[in-house]
C-alpha cells in the first residue's frame, strides 16, 4: 500500500511541476495546485503517524474528490 502511495505521490508531484513550468492553458495553475495537494495527500512519509488526526479513509476521500473535480477545471468557460 505504501508503494502505491509513493508512486501516486511522485506522479502527482512531477505532473504538477511540469504543468506549473509549462502553463499551456488558463486552468493550468489551478490544475497544478490540485496535483500538488494530491501529492501531499498521498505521500506515505508525511501521514505515517496521523499528525492532524486525518485517517486513511479521509485522505482517500479527499484524493477522490480532487480527482473528480478535475473535469470542472477542464471545461471551457463561457
Supply database-style keywords:
78 residues; 4 helices; mainly alpha; globular
Mean pLDDT: 78
Strand percentage? under 5%
Largest sheet: none
End-to-end gap:
42 Å
Cα radius of gyration in angstroms = 13 Å
Low-confidence stretches: none
Taken in chain order, the helices and strands follow as HHHH
Number of helices: 4
Structural class: mainly alpha
Domains (count): 1
Give a description of the structure.
The protein has 78 residues and is mostly helical. It contains four helices and no strands. Helix 2 (28-42) packs antiparallel against helix 3. The mean pLDDT is 78.
Secondary structure layout plus pairing:
Elements: H1 2-22, H2 28-42, H3 56-68, H4 70-74
Describe, in short, the structure shown.
The protein has 78 residues and is mainly alpha-helical.
